[in-house]
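User: I'm new to structure prediction. If I give you an amino acid sequence, what do you actually give back? Let's try with this one:
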Amino acid sequence: MLTKVPKISLLEALIPIVFLIVLLWFNVQEVYGDGALDGANQFVLLLSGAVAAIVGFKNKVSFDRMMTAVAKNLKSTSTALLILLFVGALAGTWLISGIIPAMIYYGMQLLNPTIFLVASVVIACIISVATGSSWTTSATVGIALIGIGKAIGLSEGMVAGAVISGAYFGDKMSPLSDTTNLAPAMAGTDLFTHIKYMAYTTVPSITITIIIFLFLGFTQTTSGVTDTSVLLNAIDSSFNISLWLFAVPVLVILMIVKKTQPLIALLIGTLLGGVFALIFQPAIVLSVSGEESLNLVSAYKGVMNAITVDASVETGNVLLNELFTSGGMKGMLGTIWLIMCAMVFGGVMEAIGALKALSDALLKMASGIFGLFASTVGACIGFNITASDQYLAIVVPGKMFAKAYEEKGLAPENLSRTLEDSGTVTSVLIPWNTCGAYQSKVLLGEVGMTSYIPYAFFNIISPIMTLLFAAFNIKIRMLKDKAIAE
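Assistant: Good question. You get back a string of structure tokens that encode the predicted 3D arrangement of the chain. For your 486 residues, that looks like this:
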């Protein structure tokens, strides 16, 4: 159990952050580029944690205290790490079963390149509202949309930005979302008041996002195959494409809607993908197994390879060969490594009192109502950067600012909305944040995160929108207004 948080100066609290930012910049801009996520950034997080520990030792913070905080952080991410492993497993069996190829096959026939980006936003919105999970949305329809976009020659980063924009709309607005339940709990309001009040800033943000993607769709010149028949024929000749394959993703989505635990839903989706692979694509299972004939051992080995190690399907088309490759659970290990290192850094920063020092500094800047909103936004983004976790970016500022909002006569839904507008959505814009690492790996693999950041318009616009509402006093509900309404 941690004792009282030590008091350190703001300058001391900033030392590890400055060190982290400088080295991350050097890794990405000067040395590795997007390849920095292969390991260099992970070690930088550990080095930054070591710098924070040195600051802690100077202020008489014990090593045991730091390790206790690190252990607590790592424990909090255990479910997320397991989800990552199962997403890798699911992607593998959904590839060899033909589920992902079927999504791409039918999607290429239905989605016109001009409206594809807008359609991607809308589809991701619907799925994420239904499931309450941006992670599930990306791991299912997101992967398929990336594949379709790539096949018709659209930028993978642009399509990923569209998917993430839609996915995080649902992550904010769905009553099934954990962050949508967490934010009002921290602020002191109820779930549906929070959702209703959040719509004031969220609807304009997603509307502007859709307009931008509509404009981009009309201005894009696709460099890929305009006659999709070549790709369709290649998919059709390599897989046994059937509408029955959609039964698995539909079932997984229904389980999530019915509040089945994501780990259970993903496990069932993975196992069903393996069963469907044996039913619909026995030749591919045999190929992945590396054996000469299909029997019990080779069938088991083929499905297990797709789940755990890697799987690729040869189609005779270079573009599709690159697309129809999965790293299985093994392919997620780099992201898991990144998250664990980020939790080490965040844990040490919390233990030495650096996070509290940063929070106190932000509170001092909150002189007026707009200053309070701006400080909340800054704190949420700051915690996404320093603590590397969107839940901490909601919980800590929520606890920190609740009293300040009350003292200024502001209804708690102002705080809960701001927590989501700046804490939930900006997490995916930070490469070493758990959300940024996850979305980058699931949607773009080795392409890296930096390619989608400029196109995650909803995530960029949302904190700006909440500040505009605060600056012009739009839908800023006071406690007296709440009392009259009740």
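You can read the tokens as a compact description of the fold. Here is one thing that stands out. Residues 10-78+332-485 form one domain.
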